[in-house]
Amino acid sequence: MSLPPLPLSAISIGVHAEGWRAAVTAAGAALERSGATSASYAERMVAVIEEFGAYVVIAPGLALAHARPGTDVLRDGLSVVTLAEPVNFGHPHNDPVSVVVGLAVSSADQHVHFVAELANVFNTATVIPTLAAATDAEGIRSLFGLGLAHTSSNPAISPASVAARKAATTSGSEDAV
Amino acid sequence: MKIVVMCGLGVGTSEILKVNAERALERLEIEAEVVATDVAGVQTAAADAQVILTSSELVAAIGRTNADVIVIDNFFDVDEVAAKLETALG
Q1: Is ipTM beyond 0.85?
Q2: B9: distance to nearest CA of chain A, Å?
Q3: I want to staple A65 with a disulfide (CB 3.0 to 4.6 A). Which of A45, A75, A120, B89 is the partner?
Q4: Could you report the per-residue pLDDT of A139-171, keeping only the tens digit for each?
Q5: What CA–CA distance (Å, rounded) separates A85 from A138?
Q6: Which N-terminal residues, if any, form the signal peptide (chain B) (predicted)?
Q7: Does residue A74 come out as left (phi exceeding 0), alpha (psi in the -120 to 50 range) or beta?
């Protein structure tokens, strides 16, 4: 059984969020950018926390932002947002949050199979701090047990990956000279 | 024995806790049925349950119940889930 898609376009590294709403909205934007959801899904993820509280902070430093299936879920998908500065969600034990995983499921009964896979990823205690410290999107995909995405036309928003790409371009042009 | 795991929506979060509760029960060699539910369904689901596992944030939403309510801080920590289940059931 495999996880929902986590393309590079659904990964944002070092996001500056002023609070939990901005952090969840970033996870929603990443889902939308990757084609898993339309814009209203991010608002619905925020509304879940407004209704039920910070229970989505299910482990120290980690929020699993999600909402019910709906017409704004275009396909199953995951997103990962790491925060430049951790933010508080209001959870008594697990604040502050440095990693927000966005989850969109298209049907209430189709996703049970991948939850075990997600649990396997996070049963390793060190994975949350390692995710928080990750500097490139491929590294985050590998922490989820995923291989190279090979989607360079659809890059993640990452200062590190931009720098790496610039460096590669520079060395390439030097070679040409 | 029946154990209910509860989250706000019944999609995603409670299923993660269900998977790890089943792993904890296996480790403790306790046979139990683990059912995932949401705030709206907890009264029905927990009517014949011995234990409810949930987040500290959702305890107040359960209402009156005869089941033992166990708060799990880290849904991914099978050690925590096993220790708290062992205390409640042992």
Answers
A1: yes
A2: 7
A3: A45
A4: 999 999 887 765 544 444 444 444 444 454 444
A5: 21
A6: none
A7: alpha
